[in-house]
Write a structure and sequence with these properties.
8 helices; 506 residues; binds fe (ii) ion; alpha+beta; 7-stranded mixed sheet
Length: 506
């Protein structure tokens, strides 16, 4: 868009805005805060990025024009682009603006105005040109922000020096409210569109989460709690009929509240989130969807659809080679997308990929949780075999879900400690969701020698600095998740040599 051409248009639009403000059918509509949920940006590309907000408050008309501005400077002295979007009641008055024609590898600031009010200012950036050599990439991974179980002190690490924040799932939790909670969910268990929208609004009212969104562009995948615990494809945890209606409502609210492009808008119960992003020739991101296309968990309890832990000898179905976590089309898409042209292949997905046995294998062949990759071992083997046989460089798997910091080797064969390490894994602890006791994790690590580190007793995130030779990881831990002002410290450091897979303690 040429800013010179849009200037007179904006004059007219300002009048339209003023007129719209005048017709808001609410006694004191001008006093109602309209940008209470903050701003966000996401899905950056070489020439664009998605800018998000959602109008709030009583008495909004069915359609509200919202202006957006992108500037080269924090003070908006040098405007790069302006435009307008319609916020519609049908989509919860969310705005997904998509400026195109921005310059690659540049930092920008953005804000919205509507109904006589202005939003907070967000900072974002575009991706480097494809094929360009990029010296460094700074990113943060995070997941699992149960509102009732902690404050979001971990998000204070989301500073504007980051190139990207990658969120790996469990943005909301669907549970009702617990009387013992640190801060309580509004409303009962979430199952319909109005309730999902309200749950996102409650989570997004948190100032630290808003600041994290305003600090850097996000890449996002979901896990189960954006819909409900342990769902698998078209099957709910309680085997309820009409689960796909619930999934449709949940996916719709998810799209409405995050900076996804319009092209990702869900159709009924379907929304495509798996995607790739290249960061010059330094890194290729593969963002996976481990929920929408998976087979149901193997050997469930009768009449129940959720997860459990199982002895391998009691559930041979677990080993069925036909079982899939990603679904056939996504598996093939990943297989075709591995890059030998990039220094790193960063696989952003929901959960721990390394095998994690919780019982002496002499008892029953080992005991595994059937909701994670351990419930789909043949699918994991297929994925890692491709990495091994095609010698895919710099594969680092990034996960969340299990509310524990793990650093692990991904081996070609987890039963053979001499088999080659083909990839590295970092799994982040939760932003606020509770976990196992540290004692329990400590007792299980000896059963899993490929897992070098496990800390479940701290909330936090992982920050990475990546260059062409090394990926350096800082495992960040909050002192006290009951305190929003708590200090955050580095609990451990690891480094991965690009040519030698496996995290090394630094
Ligand atoms: Fe979680």
């Amino acid at each position: 868009m040429d800013p010179k051409k849009t200037a007179p248009l904006l004059g007219r639009r300002a009048m339209v805005l003023a007129a719209a403000a005048a017709f808001v059918p609410h006694a004191r509509a001008a006093d109602v805060p309209r940008f209470e949920l903050g701003v966000a940006s996401g899905c950056p590309s070489e020439h664009g990025v998605v800018l998000w907000t959602r109008l709030t408050g009583e008495g909004l008309p069915a359609q509200v024009p919202v202006c957006w501005e992108v500037a080269h400077d924090r003070g908006f002295a040098r405007i790069a682009q302006r435009g307008e979007e319609l916020a519609e009641a049908a989509w919860a008055h969310s705005v997904h603006a998509e400026p195109a024609g921005l310059e690659p590898a540049r930092e920008y600031w953005y804000r919205f105005t509507a109904l006589g009010q202005a939003s907070a200012v967000g900072r974002t950036r575009t991706a480097p040109p494809s094929g360009a050599e990029v010296a460094t990439l700074r990113l943060m991974i995070a997941s699992c922000q149960h509102y009732e179980q902690g404050h979001y002190a971990a998000w204070r690490d989301a500073d504007p020096g980051l190139d990207l924040i990658v969120f790996l799932g469990d943005y909301i939790y669907e549970h009702g409210s617990s009387p013992l909670a640190l801060r309580r969910h509004r409303g009962a268990r979430v199952e319909n569109l109005a309730a999902y929208r309200d749950r996102y609004a409650q989570y997004k009212s948190d100032a630290l989460l808003q600041a994290a969104h305003a600090a850097a562009p996000w890449l996002m995948v979901w896990d189960d709690h954006e819909v409900e615990n342990d769902y698998a494809g078209a099957q709910g945890e309680r085997l309820q009929s009409h689960f796909l209606d619930q999934r449709a409502a949940a996916y719709r609210a998810y799209w409405e509240h995050l900076p996804f492009p319009k092209s990702a808008r869900p159709r009924g119960p379907d929304m495509r989130i798996y995607a790739r992003l290249d960061w010059g020739t330094l890194a290729r991101f593969h963002l996976l969807d481990g929920r929408q296309y998976r087979d149901p968990q193997a050997c469930p309890e009768p009449g129940y659809g959720g997860s459990r832990t199982l002895r391998l000898n009691d559930c041979r179905a677990l080993l069925d080679p036909k079982r899939t976590l990603l679904g056939g089309p996504q598996e093939r898409w990943l297989e075709e997308g591995w890059s030998t042209e990039h220094r790193w292949n960063l696989l952003a997905q929901q959960t721990l990929m390394a095998r994690f046995n919780t019982e002496d294998p002499a008892v029953g062949g080992g005991r595994y949780w059937n909701d994670g990759w351990d419930g789909y071992p043949a699918a994991r083997q297929r994925l890692l075999s491709v990495v091994e046989h095609r010698r895919i460089p710099g594969v680092v798997v990034l996960g969340g879900d299990v509310h524990t910091h793990y650093a692990a080797d991904l081996r070609a064969d987890f039963d053979d400690p001499m088999s080659p390490v083909v990839a590295s894994e970092f799994c982040t602890t939760s932003i606020s969701s509770r976990s196992w006791s540290q004692q329990r994790v400590d007792s299980l690590l000896p059963l899993n020698p490929h897992v070098h580190y496990g800390r479940s007793d701290r909330r936090g995130s992982i920050r990475f600095e990546v260059d062409s030779r090394e990926l350096r990881a800082e495992l960040r831990a909050v002192d006290d998740a009951r305190d929003a002002a708590s200090a955050v410290r580095t609990a451990a450091r690891f480094v991965v040599d690009r040519d030698r897979p496996g995290p090394q303690r630094a």
